[in-house]
Amino acid sequence: MAGNTRKPTLVLFVRHGHTPTTGAVLPGRAPGLHLSDRGREQAEQAAGRIADLGPGRVGAVYASPMERARETAAPIARAAGRRVRVHDGLNECDFGKWTGRRLSDLRRRRDWRQVQRNPSSFRFPGGESFAEMQTRITAAVQWLVERHPGSTVVAVSHADTIKAAVSHASGAHLDMFQRIAVSPCSITAILYTADSPLVLAVNSTSDLKSLAPS
Question: Model's pTM, two decimal places?
Fold first, then answer.
């Protein structure tokens, strides 16, 4: 990878589909959480939207190791004629002792305000900090881009990791990342060029065929 000769790589970040605990519990990395019926429908719809980009367009499909992410990636990979590859860098944030807690309880905590307003300085008790999470997802994206120059790569991950990737690509401080919305099975498109990333779409749940830098 020398100078500005690298071909741009389009990364399509897909948040996993709806689960039985979406919006109610902070599941984190606890095993055994699968997509709901609604989530499976969302995954099929996302696969169709990505397939509409054209045959052979997707060069690789990667997923977080969590079941809900791999289940979301499965129909996308089938539609693209690819296999799902697991990348640990796409994993959910390690919420430590907050894993499995109800969001309604967490919102009553005094440090919840820090999570929302000053996340760059927050570390989950016994878990990861938001800064470490952003460094991890950024390194994973760099690996994908270097591995697949000139290709379109699907990366199925989680809301916070995708928001952190968008924040980094747009040059926004990590403290701003909570202002970004990433819904279940939404698609966020970032074109990684040799010069700088271009954020083409965030939280998209509609047609992707018009994606192109102007």
Answer: 0.95
